[in-house]
Amino acid sequence: MKTLRVGYNSCGIAAGAEETLNKLHALLDGNSNFEIKKTGCNGMCYLEPIVEVIEKGKIYTYGGLTSDKVEKFIETLEKGEHIDDWIILHPDHPTAQSSYQEKQVKLATKNIGVIDPENIDDYIAADGYQALEKVLKTMNRQQVIDQVRVSGLRGRGGAGFSCGMKWQFAKDAPGEEKYMICNGDEGDPGAFMDRSTLEGDPHGVIEGMTIGAFAVGAQVGFFYVRAEYPLAVKRLRLAIKQAEAKGYSGNNILGTGFNFTLHVIEGAGAFVCGEETALIASIEGKRGMPRTRPPFPATHGIWGKPTNNNNVETYANIPYIIREGGAAFSKYGTDMSKGTKVFALAGKIKRGGMIEVPMGTTINEIVNDIGGGILSDGKCKAVQMGGPSGGCIPAHLHDTPIDYEKIMATGAIVGSGGMVFMDQDTCMVDIARYFLSFTVEESCGKCTFCRVGTKRMLEILERITAGEGTEEDIPLLQKLCDSIIKGSLCGLGQTAPNPVLTTLRYFRDEYEAHIRDKKCPAKKCKAMITYRVVADKCTGCTLCAKTCPVGAASGERKQIHQIDDQKCTRCGFCKDACKFDAIVVE
Amino acid sequence: MAIKVTINGKEYEGKHGETIRDVAKRNGIGIPVLCERAQIDPFGSCRVCLVEQDKARYPVVACAAPVFDGIVVNTETELIKGLRKLDIELLFSNHFADCVAPCNMTCPAGIDIQGYVGLAANGEYTDAERLIKQKVPFPGILGRVCPAPCQKECRRNLVDETVSIKFIKRFISDINFEKGTRYAPPVALSSGKTVAIVGAGPAGMSCAYYLAQQGHQCTIIEKLPKAGGMTRYGIPDYRLPQKELDAEIAEIESLGVEFLYNTELGKDVTIDGLRRSFDAVFLAIGAHVSKSMGIPGEELAGVYQGIDFLREVKLGKKFDLGETVVVVGGGNTAIDAVRTSLRLGAKNCYIVYRRSRLEMPADPIEVHDAEEEGVQFHFLTNPVKIHGEKRMESIESVRMELGEPDASGRRSPVVVEGSEFMIKADTIIMAIGQEPDVSCIGNECKIRTTKWSTFMINEATFQTDIPEVFAGGDAMRGPCTVVECIADGRNAATQIDRFLRGRELTPIPGIYSVRRGTSLKALKALEEEWKNRFPAEPRAEMPMVDSKKRIKSFVECELGFTERELRREAGRCLECGCFSQYDCELRQIGKAVGAEPTALKTKGEIRFESDLRHPFIMKDQNKCILCGACVRACDELRHVGAWGFVDRGYVTTVQPSFGVALQETDCESCGTCVQNCPTGSLDERFPGIKTVPEDAVELPGVCTFGGFGCHLNLATVNGRLVSVKGQDGDPNRGLLCKYGRYGTRYINNLPRITEPMKRENDLLKPVSWAEAHKILVSAVSRIPGKDWGVYAGGRLTLEELNQIDAFIDKNMSGALKTSFSADSLMAGKVLARTFGVMGSPWSYDTVDNADMILTVGFDDDDMMTVLGVKIRGAKSKGAALYGIGRDIMNKLGFAFDEFNVSDSIAATLAGVCKTVSKAIKTSDVKALFKGLKIEGCDEDDSVLAALNKARNPVIVISCKAGAAAVQWAANLALLKKCPILELPLTANAQGLAEMGFIDEMAARRGLFILAEDPTGCAVNEMVADEIVGKADFIVVADAFLTPTAEKADLILPLKVAGERAGTFLSGERRLNRFTEVLKTNYPTIFDKIPEAENTEKLKAATRPQFTELTAGKGALRQAPLTDEEIRYTNGADYLSAQASWEFLQLEL
């Protein structure tokens, strides 16, 4: 009897997991030697579709198993053999991909890719709801909070505020009617930790949140998940239904008299609704706009009632902390940042996926050991951490351990876990412009500094990347950054200048090259580059002329070609097409 | 418990729940803010009120941050000041709007052009002149001779052609002279200081005009025999007639300015002498010396200097110019000289100018007019020598060509070698420029002069090297325009005034304004858009005397606009400047914090078209700062929610819900959004009237419409009503309904009765008061008192009612005393039967804490009043809302939990009471009233069930409900021991009742109708028509020519509230006193009949001051009828009170 686990999160489905699964069913349905299960993603998104073969307690992980390979795969398995070339993780010996998993420690994500997220029994079999039972039957509210405090768990949404303290505030807030919120409005470009977690292990989050509800004394909870995550929403709703049916949610949970009703609210995709007061307004049916604090949601949240709000990953850590004790969690990590952190690796990295590492792991370890280095064996230039609110950490600081304070010292933030890697071909001014354009669009429009200030900053960056920057632009940018940070109403505005500030801090020379020399060192900014044919290398193959969409590249066969700079739109197709490296950007 | 708050190093006491701004405000520490609005929850969006708080990582918003014990706040650190300034600059960077119109910004004297053009369009000519005279004393002169740089920057140029600003100014001046409505400024008490002004030109006289207004004694010393300077001696009469000049000079004289003519500085008086005799001296001697060309032959006869020639013509000297006159030069003086020559009989007149037409500095219109009159132009020509024996005979000239541009940007003329040629002429007049004659100050004087022979001054202070000697105008600048000289005179006056008062002479700031573009050129891109937006409407042509006719005399060429032309031309103004420029908080704060409007350059401001779909409320999204004051006010104060935020990010806007026109939402046109908008993004406008930005003064008033008694702030300019706002504080707390807000303006627009009129041959004809009196006396003696019906309206004051009362007693004893609004008095009468009080004895505030409200006879209109808003407010706090009425409430019906539509409200209510009566019949009455619960009633009746459940129910009746309905409602209130409130229809309906105008309406032979229009708008039309139809003789006293007035035999004028002082009694018996804040200039009937004694009736009506009685929140607040008698306090014994059981006697 072999069990086949098919990674069936959004990432897997996008890579063809559905076709693979269909093929497997077509071949194996009715075959009692095989059992097929759908799971979440084991984090190796870059090798999806992934199918794991479990036989005799051993796990063989197959990567890139697209449907066309399934027939051969099953044939081989039926023979009792394996196709070693397709195995990415082997139970008996290391593989080229082993290093991806070796440095990871999975506490919050331990079930993802292992259990079937649509089957509560699978979760229960993996110690699921044990922590909730322990809490309801053996602990009082303060004891729960104490364990969370002992664990040192800090909010994984980005700000890193102590989870135990937050729960304490909500518990101590006067009032009988209280609410819990799970913030799943993940909006950072390149981040997908919450999606993967909700898709792969919804019960883990439900359990964590229910424990929190017991601790603070809440009766109703809201999952706020963006509508762009339909699979997460579907699995969450299913999980809530299953949990209610089994007595883990709803009224009189596990017969203890504790009531906790969960609702799923789909956010309309406004980035600002990740901000807790905006999120609360949105739940209340109002426009998702932040309000001034204090009062804080802990005392004045949904409909003015005490409300606790954590993000998905924070809640996902709770069952482990309760089961194993806060101390077990705090074993991992650094002095100030305990436990593990989940990251989504994206950008120019070889192995893009979701990882969970102990706090204290360095960026270098993530790039090189786990991520396998930069694409095309290029050199890493920087990593953007914390999305549009974070900053770019240059390669020379990549021995910085992941730790809230140490990352903050670089000008970036740990954030919710998005890591976007950049290579030498990335223009840092352009990257700053990109992140800023995101905030300009996603600002709620309420406060002046964020709404107008970021737009004025964006115009300056657009000016610089268009080769129209002036000497006054850098000081003006700096003044605007400083004022927007200090003057904005909510976290969105207060952190919006970070990408600009960090690139200004570490890559000022690139800004200056754009302004003074009208040159883009990364050769990205179209206004400042020209495409030229290197006469020595051109063979007159005519490929560039054929590729050029605007007829800028031309020449006779076997003759050296030319590029008309006036016509050229700097699309770069010719350079990509040339087989002789005869086209250069200057 | 007090808490310690430290602000800017000083300790203050704060209370829990207060914000930083609350504490700062109470202690006089100003923290600017834009988004904070009275009575609306803090929002914190504008960020202007950021302050540093020692415990907070970043600055906090003072409007929302609560104080706590030991808090340390700093409001004026460098960081905060920098943030505030940048904040405003960020807002300005996306503010595609003009505070002040470009014409105004361009005018050297800074005249509020948009203002006076708008006032002229509205026919407010005196006010228009007042506005002009704030900046220049000579609208008539400037309206004729100003080169009008404003017109070049007029945005109308983008659509078609400029507005004729200059001619509009002339019209205003002329019509006010014609009608005797010229504006004369007030003059302050004498300061005891004296100023000598040398030169009676535009600069000198302007200086005198503004100094005289400050109470300084001015003496103008003039070398020539008359005043006017260049305007008299440099500008020919056909452009500026002497009588216009004399008239405006006379106005300067009338301020007490003394003129000493034929007195020359340097000869008759000296600077040192003037310094000894006066406290200050202003040198405005002009530039009257012609510049010489310095060519051979200038000494010959027939050679004249331009400005000397013009002056001597004015002084009466005769000239023999011969047939042919050549004038050299391209400026206005050259044109004036050549056109004068034509009028003196010369046949051939030429202009010789060394550059081309394009470079001519003269006004193109002048050039055009000269050409029309037959003047010929020789361009690129320059005289080099004048030939002749004794008298000149010919001019040797050379051809010129244009070379490289010089420093001024004009291309310099260069001589074409060998191009000499001769021009035959009898006279040559050289008009190439003038300069001041500064020799008059004498050699000893320490005042320095420049190389251009002008006085050297400190440009900021207008002071010469001698501190008490100031200089300005042509004498300081060299030859310049009249309007520049006037500006100098006025600015110098400001500095001299400061000097005389010992104040610091700080530079006079320019106009602070955000601008859509600093020049018309910069807005060229808008041309297409504007052409589509504004229909083309050609500029009015100035009517002229025919060119052949006009060269025969010095009669004025331009004839001036007719009033029709004027109104149309003024109506062409695009109203570029912001209507809120005088009270825009953004502009005020920007100015205060030194924000630079153009600090942040951008091409990315978002441009919107103004939304003008609503008849009274305009929205200009360009000026919106997204503070959401309108959104929040509409939602939180009115409970309507017509406005909302749309989109997010930089492109966020405020729009009516779903983008429809505002009037298609639940908008009640109450203007609360406009009142709360801190900028000009939301503004008022009125169809058919030019909206004019005006620096208005807000004065208190009382609404003349409904019986709620709303307190108003009347924005007035010179006693003219401009706009209406709700007053903060009780009873309406800033709120108004559409009638109060926009209806009050009717007094500006409806035809007014300003003098008595009588009917003669079926036509109304004005008569004198004496004749009116005679007619009235004869009618009163002809018709006996009992055959008179006196109908008084609810807009008459208690005092006026008292006066009428006395008049009736004396002249029409036994007359019927009532009102066509008697229906609204009915409720009072009914309530008096039940409660012994003529009206509701409860305060409207009882609604605020009600948990159940039953409205009786209310309709949409009632729901939109401030009482309606209070009801909705209670509803939004959780009160149950029930209604019984005849009509479905269309607009706000959704607010009701249940609304019973019933043809007979009374029957419905009687039904409710019937179930109660059963209970009463079967149980002990005393026991019934022990508990609040009405026992044994029909629980199926939802209204009754809700009433039963409620702890603080309130019944609200409309006076439209009918007597029976009111009676049943009163019975219900009595049973439930709950407040019953009534909303009278008119402002002083309660006063009418108290003053005894409560007889049953009936027909009489003689009718005396005051402030009522039964024919036009009666509650009960048929009754009204019958009463009016049966009368033999009708006297109507009213402010407006109403349909009723048109039927009258005698009409007498009245004024409206605000035009006279008085007292109204509101529906909750609140005594509302108001003063006279609006100006009128005619007497009314109340000025003509004898003052009445303060009768007992009036004393009783005006005694109970509602506000004297205060009760705790939640308790029933009741108004006392008299000092002794407070009948129904909370928990009073109802049975021992004299409440009568009306319902028991009615058929059930």
Q: Gist?
A:
The complex is a heterodimer of chains A (586) and B (1148). Chain A is an alpha/beta fold and 586 residues long.
Low-confidence stretches of chain A: none
Principal-axis shape of chain A equals: globular
Strand content of chain A: 15-25%
Calculate Rg of chain B over CA atoms: 37 Å
Tally of DSSP helical segments of chain A: 24
Measured by DSSP, the beta-strand proportion of chain B falls in: 15-25%
The computed structural class of chain B is alpha/beta
Low-confidence stretches of chain B: 921-939, 1105-1148
- Oligomerization state: heterodimer
Biggest interface between chains: A-B, 34 and 38 residues
**Average pLDDT taken over every residue of chain A:** 95
- What does the radius of gyration of chain A come to? 26 Å
Strand order of the largest sheet of chain B: 30-29-40-39-38-31-32
Taking strands numbered 1, 2, ... along the chain, how are they ordered across the largest sheet of chain A? 2-1-3-4-5
- Tertiary shape of chain B: globular
- From the N-terminal CA to the C-terminal CA of chain B, the straight-line distance is 58 Å
Strand element count of chain B: 42
Q: Portion of residues in helices of chain A?
A: 25-40%
- The computed structural class of chain A is alpha/beta
List the helices and strands and how they pair.
The complex is a heterodimer of chains A (586) and B (1148).
Chain A: E1 2-7, H1 10-15, H2 17-28, E2 34-39, E3 51-55, E4 58-62, H3 67-78, E5 87-89, H4 98-102, H5 120-125, H6 130-138, H7 141-151, H8 163-172, E6 179-184, H9 193-200, H10 202-216, E7 220-226, H11 230-245, E8 250-253, E9 258-267, H12 276-283, E10 307-311, H13 312-324, H14 326-330, E11 340-347, E12 354-358, H15 363-370, E13 380-385, E14 391-394, H16 404-409, E15 418-423, H17 428-442, H18 448-465, H19 473-487, H20 491-495, H21 498-506, H22 508-517, E16 531-533, H23 543-547, E17 553-554, E18 562-563, H24 573-577, E19 583-585
Chain B: E1 2-7, E2 10-15, H1 20-26, E3 50-53, E4 60-61, E5 71-74, H2 78-93, H3 102-106, H4 113-121, H5 125-133, H6 139-145, H7 149-152, H8 156-159, H9 165-179, E6 194-198, H10 202-213, E7 217-221, H11 230-233, H12 242-253, E8 258-260, H13 271-277, E9 280-283, E10 289-290, E11 303-305, H14 306-314, E12 324-328, H15 332-343, E13 348-352, H16 364-372, E14 376-378, E15 381-388, E16 392-405, E17 411-415, E18 421-424, E19 427-430, E20 434-435, E21 469-471, H17 474-477, H18 482-500, H19 527-533, H20 547-550, H21 563-571, H22 585-592, E22 617-619, H23 629-637, E23 643-646, E24 653-656, H24 672-676, E25 682-684, E26 697-702, E27 711-717, E28 720-726, H25 738-742, H26 746-749, E29 757-760, E30 763-766, H27 769-782, E31 788-792, H28 798-811, E32 816-818, H29 822-835, E33 852-856, H30 860-863, H31 866-876, E34 880-885, E35 898-901, H32 905-922, H33 925-928, H34 942-949, E36 953-958, H35 963-976, E37 980-983, H36 989-994, E38 1006-1010, H37 1014-1017, H38 1021-1030, E39 1033-1038, H39 1043-1046, E40 1050-1053, E41 1062-1065, ...
Helix pairs in contact in B: 4-5, 4-9, 4-21, 5-9, 6-9, 9-21, 10-18, 14-15, 29-35, 32-35
